[in-house]
Amino acid sequence: MHNSHVAAATFVTMSLVALALASPTNADEPDGTETCASKYPNAPTQPPRGYDYDNESDAYMAFRRAAMAAGYTSVKKAKRDDVQSGPCMGHGEHLNMKGRRRASKGKSPEWTQVGSMSSCDLCEETPRGPRLYKTVWRIHPDF
Fold this sequence. Notes:
Elements: H1 2-22, H2 36-39, H3 56-69, E1 74-82, E2 93-100, E3 112-126, E4 129-141
Antiparallel strand pairs: 1-2, 2-3, 3-4
């Protein structure tokens, strides 16, 4: 009888180990597969409206052209932070932009806040699970 208790305990232990191994650990979906929504909340799968630039350089050049058309002589990137709100919260960067105009005689030009740029990481579903695959940019001129 002692052997049957050991066999039963061994069977129960092995069953629990097999069950634990079969259960996915970081899965939020009922069937255990991760998705963009479960792994990267707030990371969109398509560019949100206004995120028209494929990289930071293209966005900067577009911002610079808009600033020059508005009378600024130069622009520069200033403070860089994580995105704190909007459609890409937690999955993008926010850059403050400074600009300056020609100064009047005898004065040096001052840098002032002229807007910002922000990025957004996009997620795609792949056979190996969700992944962040592309970053798009938006400009926010304020002049």
